[in-house]
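Structure tokens please, single chain.
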Amino acid sequence: MQNEIEEKRRAAEAKAHQDQQMNTILAVYLKDMTELMLSRNFTLTDNLMATVVRAKTLTTFGQLDGKRKDHLVRFLFEARMIGAGRPSVDLKGADLSNMDLTNYKLNGVSFVKCNLFKTIFRGTSLQDVDFSNAQLNSSSFDNSYLTNVTFYGANLTDASFVRGQLPKVNFSGAILTDADLTGIRALNLGAIDIKGNHTIFNGAYLTLAYFTDCTLINASFIKTQLWMADMSYAILDRANFTDADLSDTNFDGSKLSGSIFDRSSTADASFYGTNLEATQWLDTNVRGADSSQANLSSASITSDQLRRAGKTFNITLPDGSLSSDTNLLRNGDSEGVNGECETSPWHVNSMVAQKYNLVLPEPEIYGKCHFTKQSDTTQATMSQRVPVPIGYGEWILTDVAFIRITGRCVSSFTSYVFIVILTNFIE
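Here you go.
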């Protein structure tokens, strides 16, 4: 018992001695800087003077604890030695860890390559602040307001931005493993090429966010608003988009295997060429979505949902088979047998098939024959009645079938209008 009391006494004395040392270091720095700033020839535009000030400042930061570091940062900002619109002390590489700048306001400060481990910016207003390549592990920006702030290449592992306001913030190239961005509101969020695991965006509002080429494994976007976001060519395996609004979001070329889209809205979203293996689609709104060339093998999406999708061209279905890709037209051009031109099997009205009579290089024309209207008519039609195989009938009956037509006008004096009519013949 006596030993414990003695140990606590010695620890208290050591802490008091350390506090006194740090107080002295800070007081000396503030005194020296005040005298220097009050001198007639003080200017940070002088390279020698700027070098001396930077060396003294970084050395002082390295000898202080978090409480005294944030006091020093406030002094530098308020003394106009860092910040926008003036020559600043270069803080690059400074140890600014464990500071608490809660509810403070900083404008135009550069923290490039600074160590800001466990620094608190809770409720802080940051404008035109640069955190590029900074160490921000376990830092907190909860309820903060950030505008024109860049975190390019920063390490934000275990950082928190809960309910922050983030207009015009750039996270491109940053590491966001275990970062929590729950409930943030952001416009034009730059998140290109970010990397992370278990990153949380639950309940966030991310209008026009750019996640191109990002790698976010096991990310959570539950109840997130991702209006018109760009997530093309991203690696988002096992992401959770439950109850999210993904309207008009671009997932082209992305990897989303094992992801969950239950009860979300992917209306008019694009999944062209996307890997959607083993994804979940319980009660998901997919109306108008483009899943052409996508891989939906082992996905839980239903046939009814696929019928409501906008485009399902050449997709890999949940059972591993390919969707139908048969040309419904028996003969789409005017080429007959033995080089003859013919309209069959088209039903034509005031239309003829004839050889090209123009002198054009061979690559300029597709085949030797073409359709054209008769010269003595102002209106011509052509139609073809085709059988609809299994796999196409459902698409036509639910109004999601699409037909692609390529036309070529060889006369500069004539305009052609292509009209496609899907007619339901009943016999």
